[in-house]
Amino acid sequence: MKDTRDEFGQDLDLLLAEVGELLAVTEESLVELEKSPEDAALIQEVFRVMHTIKGGAATLGLQEAVEVSHGMENILDQIRSGERPLTTALLNVLFQAVDWLKEWKLALTDKRAVPPNEDLVETIRLAASEVPEKGIVSGKAEPDALPPVEIPDDTVQKLDSAVNEGKNVFVLTVKFHSDAPLLSVRCFQILTFLEDVAEVVASVPSREEIEQDRVSDTLVVYITAEDGGMGAKELAGANQDVSEVTVEKYRAHVQAESSGFEGSETGDSRDEAPKLEASKVAQPAQDAPAPRRSDLGRTVRVDVGLLDFLMNMVGELVIDRTRLSQLAAQLMRSPETAAIGSEISSLAAHLQRTSSELQEGIMQARLLPVKSIFSKFPRMMRDLSLRCGKQLDFEIQGENTELDRTVLEAIDDPLIHILRNSVDHGIELPEARVAAGKPPRGRVILSAQHEENQVVVKVEDDGGGIDAERVKRSAVKKGLISEEAAQRLSEKEALELIFTPGFSTSDTATEVSGRGVGMDVVRANLERVNGQIEVRTKLGQGTLVTLRLPLTLAIMRALLVRCKEEVFAIPTSSVEEVLAMEDVTVGSVQGKPAMNVRGKVVPLISLDGALRDDLWSDNGHRYALLTRSNDRPMALGVDGLIGEEEIVVKEMGHILSRLKGIAGATILAQGDPAVILDVNRVV
Amino acid sequence: MGIGGHLERVRILPKVLVVDDAMFMRTKASKLLTQEGYEVIEAPNGAEAVEVYKAQKPDLVLMDITMPVMDGIEAVKAIKSHDGDAKVIMVTALGQRSMVLEAIRAGAKDFVVKPFQPDKLIEAVRRLCPIA
Predict the structure, then answer these.
(1) B95 contacts in A (CB within 8 Å)?
(2) What is the pLDDT of residues A462-509, one digit of tens each?
(3) Residues of chain A with C-beta less than 8 angstroms from the C-beta of B97
(4) Closest Cα to residue B88, out of B65, B55, B111?
(5) Using alpha carbons only, how large is chain A's radius of gyration in Å?
(6) Which domain-ending residue is among A254, A273, A292?
(7) Which of B27, B114, B10 is nearest to A54 (CA)?
(8) Which residues are paired to A16 by β-bridges?
(9) Residues of A marked as catalytic
(10) Domain check: are A216 and A316 in the same one?
């Protein structure tokens, strides 16, 4: 469909995606290893990941990454085999290597030049060479070469006695390509399989030598066979890396190498190679029982764009289905067409079931475990706490909770910010904690869990909490609020100030938190995906930040309302109550309309007025929706209620989507488009 | 081309089980083998490979060595004890000499070295499992 990219590009994308996941795992494991450097399973895990990255990079010829991952693999192998302990210095080298690989991955993803690796490779080399190197460096282990064929005396004796017993002994000389990898294994393989077709009297090098990796590019095997050694020759020739196989008859007391023997036969093994094994190949599955599909290892990667497209298509189906139902209803009204109408009606019912299952399925496919973004946090928190001189236990709970990937993306930056805050502003220095009667190590817990139709992500720390008075002072100093207004604020309202643009409690932005984004950006990011953020704090005891997130963005329950002939969809989650105007008292506060809801005064805003930036106009509405805008109660006046429906959210062009108060669009069952309101931003 | 011509082209492809924890390597090998006319099934570790082998009895197994849960050596042993005629090709890195040796002792038929050259891999697969 869109297969215009070259094959290398596709392979690369695939590799990079996997490397990204692997690095995240490695980073987590390294952080764990720092706590328990003896954990063999963790070392093995990191080793395995490096091995995997190396293999993938080598396959695509990405030499720089091969060098780095290979270096890491070496060090880990030394640790794994108990040659050396995992020291902090080594761990730091491993961290550096992971950082480089992350850089490398980013560079390739963005099609930039890969970062230089010389320094790192040198560091790794030095670290690795502190102990005697093992053979795998650069992959070209050179075994002790033996002179090609020099038959040891005891072998000669063995051969001669076999000949004297009247056996036909043949000399099978197998030559390998000079670049054949793992030559000793190849020799071992050939020797092992020869034993199936012939009696092996001896070999040079011997089986023991081969097992010890002492081989050269020639293997000589002495066999007895009835077929003149042809079966053996074929078998040996049918091997990768074999360049030539010869068979000749062995004569007692004579060096096998001497030329000019009768029966000597040389041939390119490749021409006659595969017959032997071929004849033994298992019968294809014809008479096997019907193949049973296994669900193991059957996953594919899908572009999110494709899922969005599919979701849109399902939306279209839903609309068609509704039209079909309407058509059926029409047909059923007339006796001549009633039969066909009822047929269509049941068809529409079936279509409804199918399309909602389809919808469900696609939604499922968009879900990712939060692990995919959480996994990088342990490393980040480790680095942060080190830099701030703080001691920290960071814990993740519910990492397998699943979320729509768009939502996940939207909370990534906010979480980074919140976590940074918790270390930088929340957790106190060890001395301060001890003085306050707390353990010196601070604790931050990041958790995710399902709650009804939402996923709740929490960041909880046992730090100093947020001082509401300090927040007020800071806001006044920055001119965000007047002195008098500040005095009147409740503690909760004061906390709200941290979400004001331009606010930051820390008087000097520190290296850690001062990144130019504040909690206002965090909140804006969350609201973009219909999420909510709430901060609770107890001075001296800690802070709890709660993010409430929708499971998915692609579909939502919405209340459809009418206002001035226009239909609007409002996410049901943001409507607290619907009131009929005749049941409430509408008055005015400071000249602006407001209504009294069970003793509380709530500003009343006209929906169509709000969208025209004319908030207080035109209050002839029949209903009021009780909702919250920027966490303050608000009533939204509308003309009519249509009902509650599941709507499929459609992306709008980016010009429209920047409009205040509009979250997207949907297509209603009747086929008409409607705007989805973002109540939080209407005002 | 009539129906007959169409039917003639339907035949059962030899089935190769590709076992590797790296999805990238699995995909790469699968692509190659599919192009060559093999049906490919996959497993991400030794333990699942053994399960898949028992359930589907592939004609050939391409087995990585270093994998989580159960490594390639254990998997070869398990597969061989279930089916003595099983054909397994080990896919190995250069540093794993002694492990490949053990795999061959356990009954693996051949090995290819990572990063594999496509023609070498195909050659090894064809030799043990020719396309009809």
Answers:
(1) 73, 77, 135-136, 139, 141
(2) 999 988 888 888 888 888 888 888 888 888 888 888 887 777 644 444
(3) 141, 182, 184-185, 213
(4) B111
(5) 37
(6) A273
(7) B114
(8) none
(9) 51, 73, 421
(10) no
Contact partners, residue A635, CB within 8 Å, separation at least 6: A579, A595, A597, A602, A603, A604, A605, A624, A625, A626, A627
**Using one digit for the tens of pLDDT, what is the confidence trace for A141-183?**
334 433 445 677 777 777 777 777 777 788 888 998 878 888 8
- Do residues A239 and A321 share a domain? no
CATH number of B20-128: 3.40.50.2300
A48 near B CB under 8 A: yes
Give this complex's ipTM. 0.80
CB contact under 8 Å between A139 and B93, yes or no, is yes
Work out the minimum CA distance from B44 to partner chain A, whole angstroms.
Answer: 6
Query: What is the chain B residue with the closest CA to A22?
Result: B22
Mapped onto helix, strand or coil, the DSSP state of residue A367 is strand
Cβ-Cβ contacts under 8 Å, B76 against chain A: none
Give the distance from residue A72's alpha carbon to the nearest chain B alpha carbon, in angstroms: 13
Q: Which two tokens stand for residue A245?
A: 């196989």
In chain B, what are the domain boundaries?
20-128
Q: Are B113 and A181 in contact (CB under 8 A)?
A: yes
The rounded average pLDDT for each run of 10 residues, N- to C-terminus, in chain A (683 residues) is 59 85 86 85 86 85 87 85 82 88 89 85 80 39 43 76 78 86 88 83 85 85 81 82 84 46 40 36 39 49 78 77 82 88 86 82 83 88 88 91 85 90 91 92 93 86 90 84 84 84 57 57 80 88 91 75 86 82 78 80 82 65 81 83 77 60 74 79 66
